[in-house]
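Predict the holo structure. Ligand: heme C.
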Amino acid sequence: MNVRMIAIGLLLLAQAGCTPDPKSGKGFTLPEGNIERGQQTFAQLNCQACHTVAGVTFDDTETLTDQKIIALGGAKTKVQTYGDLVTSIINPSHRFAKGYEEEDVAQDGQSKMRLYNDEMTIQQLVDIVTFLESHYSVVQPAPTPYGPYFY
Ligand code: HEC
């Protein structure tokens, strides 16, 4: 093995380190959906049985009495990307909504959210995500109040 081959080998190794995991979401982009249609679909699928959406009132809400309402939309300190939203909908147990007691969001490690994968079309998913995204805003977290610093 000569020096050149070692150099090429090292280069390949370095490149392998930069290659995204085959399961990574890199390269995944949804087409633009329609906000209005998304809101209609959200209501049609009765997502509001367990959710409120900031700034939206739904006409007929059949709430499930034993399910804690999980608020969607509103001001968050971290951007809710469409990747986050799609994952929350098609793979709810991947991670649970923050700010709730475990028992309100999950049971035996599984999300309490209903799975829609066998009934929701991709167009419906795209529209719902576009609708939800339009109701999230990002706020700066309040800075930690530090007292004056004296030398
Ligand atoms: C039976 C109740 C129930 C229904 C119906 C339901 N969800 Fe959920 N949903 C939950 C619960 C509980 C959570 C919190 C646990 C989790 O993150 O999976 C959640 C979480 C979410 C989150 C993530 C919120 C966050 O802050 O991370 C999104 C987005 C969401 N749901 C969208 C939907 C949409 C869209 C529908 C309708 C197609 C729907 N849900 C229907 C119970 C429900």
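The CA atoms of residues 7 and 106 lie 51 Å apart. The radius of gyration is 22 Å.
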